[in-house]
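User: Can you fold this complex?
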Amino acid sequence: MRLDIRYRLHFEYDAPVWDSQNEIRVRPSDRPGQRVISHRLTTAPAARVLTFTDYWGTTVDHVGVREPHSTFDVLAEASVETSAVAQTGRAVPIEAVGDSDFVLEHVEYLAESSHTAGTEAVADRAASASAHSRTVSDRVDVIVDTVHEMLVYEGSATDIGVSIADLVAGGKGVCQDYAHLTIAMLRSVGIPARYVSGYLFASDERSLDDDDSDQVSVQTHAWVEAAIPGHGWYPVDPTNRQVVTDRHVVIGHGRDYDDVAPVRGVFAGTATPSVEAEVVIARMGPAARSVITDGPRRLDDGQFEARQRLQQRQQQQ
Amino acid sequence: MPSLFAEYEMARGYDEVFAADGTVRPRYDRIVERFSQLDATDLRRVEAIIADEFRRLGITFTVYSDNEGIERTWPMDLFPRVIAASEWSELERGLEQRVTALNRFLADLYVGERAAVLDGIVPEWLVTSSSCFERNAFGIPVPYGAHCMIAGIDLVRGSDGGYAVLEDNLRNPSGISYVVENRAAMAKAFPNLFDDHTVQPVDQYGAMLRATLESVAPAPAGDTPTIVVLTPGVYNSAYFEHAFLARSMGVELVEGRDLVVDGQVVYARTIGGLSPIDVIYRRIDDQFLDPVAFRHDSSLGVPGLLGAIRAGTVTVCNALGNGVADDKAVYAYVPEMIRYYLGEEPVIPNVTTYLMWEDEQRESVLGRLDELVIKPVAESGGYGIVIGPHATDEELALAHRNIVDDPRNWIVQEVVDLSSLASLAGDHLEPRHLDLRPFVLTGERTQVFPGGLTRVAMRKGSLVVNSSQGGGSKDTWVLAEQTADGGANAS
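Assistant: Here's the predicted assembly.
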């Protein structure tokens, strides 16, 4: 499937800021199941863009704006050709994840990370729910189902800093919360798991079924990959409880959100930022239309931490 | 007049001055002779003059948890440490070898093929589970592969007088300023003592450091790169040293707020406008260097610095992520790294270390933990260390249980009886334990600075040499001439 993705980020400050420095992770890169046909990133004010590949393999754009400014815009456009990847290894028995070479090879995807530090109760729930699973993939699927019993989808329900304990207590979340809880539970039962940031071509991230839109206006999406001994990574999308399809476009993966946050940045000044982010994805077929941007959705300002001198901004779903 | 040596009792382990039969080792001949002509009153008087001088010059160190105030005058014992010429050339060879191998490892890990990991020389999990493995440093090449441009290698001497490496410091090793200031103070206090010896000088450190840093500047910097020393500020325990380094190189001492990044180039804010910076000798930990990539709450660093390093417009010294090669677990693999990268046998051995994740090694020591030192891999600053001979049965039982439960978090080492050297205690000299931290500089080539910082325990029998815990220091002499104990080439 040929998908044209247009990612737009608009920062607005109530007073001028300066010395803005940012790492932006919104570019898809080539990998099995997807091929990048073209990509372009521009900013306003215009700035020199340094592009590099990070430890995890994600393509990163580094941008700084020194002069005082009251708005900052990032526009990233990509054309990607996707195809479904056949998943193998469904019959691998659960005992295989205990192999010491497999464990040592996946150490960084088994250790707790800041957003996936679970609780004993969460680990117990993962263990009891999947106690009867005989294969690795079945255990992954059962845990995804369990996450669905524990969370109800609610847009803008959480901040990115929420702990697993608070998330479970609140019982509400969006895609990154579903991903973090799934990862916490998978790791607690010894299955290496990683966080995937990307785009989903669906008008509603909760459901892929019967979606025949040609163009959607959404946000970035997050899902999970679990390691299956001898068969690489098994992608699952806990937000909609479906396997990953050719509607999913990967930006990158890491231990959790922090390794693939779409924007990490700071600026100097005391202004309060407001942020608008939108992703418009169009399916390009024989009768393709060019992307038409509709009105950006406004994010909740309360999600952004304001600091005295250095202010953090992380784009969030 | 009672001799300063009248009450001298040999300590356990190797005595630097006296051989087992009580005779003076040749390299100390003339020093012992001189000190025998002095009494305690003379030494106290000189000590007071030096302490005044140190106070006047602001040569201090900081103790964070001291009610008396945070600044303390630097303590220096007057009896110098002497290293014979050929003994030093052997150490020099060993240190150069070790730091070369460590740099090869860092370059391999961050910008190379990770060959040592793939070939099983260092276990991959040890690297990926290390809290000091800095993923932000991945893929950033450093000129000449000099990831560690300034290393401090802590050496100890065992009972047989043989040197061993206790610890590698590849991040921000401190102490060089005291090496230079101790020498200046000694030269003033005992000018005649130096007339008797040919001691290698130490006042060239600034020039040597500057040349090293100039050699790793990015190519566009030209022949006279602009260097700065980046300090976290006056409250840092090593601030005196940061000022010393800037002064001795003749460069600016800056804080993070004095620097700014524009278009992936670092500039200093000056009254004449922005001035480009080529090399930053930073004395700030990785985590505080750039709030974009690391801790967002840090105001010590320079936002965007990592982008500039990556763009190759500035060199930061030491490079990021060196901590992965100086932790307690990776330490154990350094001799293997030397064989692997250099095809040589290590000149200076490690202290004998047992890795608890290796079944055979674990089984060989579990029965005699009371004779050994048990160290957690993940902790630093001496936390969690169990000294077998001084531990209670409960502590040993707990250590045993911890090792069996989580073998990957523990190493076990043989106890080293540190060597000792005569030091002033009250009105006479007594042996006190000591170690040695030589400094190794790497740019276009690797050079060992003559001598290093000798740290000495100030209490009898104590093995604690840290200045923050009451330890002192000594001027450290490397003789340029041969002495009778200088080895085979002695004249």
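Chain A has two domains: 2-83+261-314, 94-260. The interface with chain B takes residues 19, 21-23, 47-48, 50, 52-56, 62, 64, 66, 104-105, 107-108, 111, 259, 264-268, 307, 309-310, 312 of chain A (CB under 8 Å).
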